[in-house]
Design a protein that fits this description.
Elements: H1 8-22, H2 28-39, H3 57-71, H4 76-80, E1 82-85, E2 88-91, H5 101-113, E3 120-125, H6 131-139, E4 143-149, H7 152-164, E5 171-174, E6 189-194, H8 201-204, H9 209-212, H10 230-240, E7 241-250, H11 256-265, E8 269-275, E9 281-287
Parallel strand pairs: 3-4, 3-6, 4-5, 6-7
Antiparallel strand pairs: 1-2, 7-9, 8-9
Helix pairs in contact: 1-2, 2-3
Bound molecules: S-adenosylmethionine (SAM).
Length: 293
């Protein structure tokens, strides 16, 4: 019998996977595939197993650097420079938060509540990499999308992502949304969608180092109760969301009661806290009352 030897990229994946597994990573094979494919210049993953070729010396050195960065706790997506979000593969780096699966769910909630074929004016408040705004622009071409963030670096990344998908209609706005006067300059909205920073000071210390030491603090931390941006957004939205318009917002799983109360105080009705796919109470849904309600 002839012994089968593993060679080429397949061998690189196996070696990398073994090192990640030994260091306790939970999905070593899939991460190894992502790292080898990125080191090989963005080779589609299925081709890793379909070729006898190997990494060049430069690519091999790059892979080693990638593995060292991963072993030191840097998020995989910052190393490969890419994150999947709904239909998109977004460029990501330290300029903005890595978009999360929960936020894909937030978009899903919004799409169930607002008619997707007709026109609608929508604000993505705290757009970061542009994940929500670009998804909505691609999935609902009849909508007018505005996307705001206080971070010029995040907005620069969002614009790069929009260019990548040839999305030209989003209006990118640099603004501090905790400043109430900013809201006066926004148009009347059919939908306000937001994944704001919502981590409280107490929770900050419990975050995995992979998050707290690598992702932008200003994208995560929001004061003593994690409400420093949520509350101003609700106040601003109460002024700018049209009668019958909707607010959907991702929140921390312990914030539901407090955020629902704030939404009520801001004048919204039909307030619900909806669960994410894991069943955790993560989405505020609120409606601007019709005049006369
Ligand atoms: C949790 S991240 C969400 C990013 C992106 N929407 C996503 O879901 O991946 C929150 C975003 O809010 C932005 N932000 C923080 N404080 C802000 C403020 N006062 N005004 C506007 N944006 C703010 C941060 O820069 C960050 O991009």
């Amino acid at each position: 019998m002839t012994a089968v030897t593993t060679t080429g990229l397949r061998l690189r994946v196996e070696e990398c996977s073994a090192r990640l597994a030994a260091a306790g990573f939970e999905e070593p094979r899939s991460e190894a595939e992502a790292l080898v494919s990125a080191a090989a210049g963005g080779l589609p993953r299925h081709l890793l197993y379909a070729t006898e070729s190997d990494l060049t010396d430069d690519q091999h050195a790059r892979l080693e650097t990638f593995i060292q960065r991963r072993l030191a706790g840097e998020p995989l997506q910052y190393i490969t420079g890419e994150a999947a979000f709904r239909l998109l593969t977004l460029r990501v780096d330290r300029r903005a938060l890595i978009p999360r699966p929960e936020t894909e769910g937030l978009v899903e909630v919004a799409l169930r509540l607002v008619p997707t074929h007709g026109p609608a004016t929508v604000l993505d408040a705290g757009t970061g990499s542009g994940a929500i705004a670009i998804s909505l622009a691609m999935e609902c071409p009849a909508w007018t999308i505005l996307a705001a963030d206080a971070s010029p670096a995040a907005l620069e990344l969002a614009r790069e992502n929009a260019e990548r998908y040839d999305v030209s209609g989003v209006e990118w706005i640099e603004a501090d949304l905790s400043n109430f006067s900013v809201w006066r300059f926004l148009p009347p909205l059919d939908l306000l969608i937001s994944n704001p920073p919502y981590v409280s000071e107490d929770e900050w210390g419990d975050l995995p180092v992979e998050i707290s030491e690598h992702e932008p603090r200003s994208a995560l931390l929001a004061g003593p109760e994690g409400l420093d941006l949520i509350l101003p957004i609700l106040d601003g939205a109460s002024m700018r969301v049209k009668p019958g318009g909707i607010v959907v917002m991702e929140i921390g799983e312990k914030q539901g009661e407090r955020v629902a109360e704030a939404a009520r105080e801001a004048g919204f009705t039909d307030i619900r806290i909806a669960p994410d796919l894991a069943g955790r109470p993560r989405y505020l849904i609120a409606t601007q009352p019709l005049r006369g309600d």
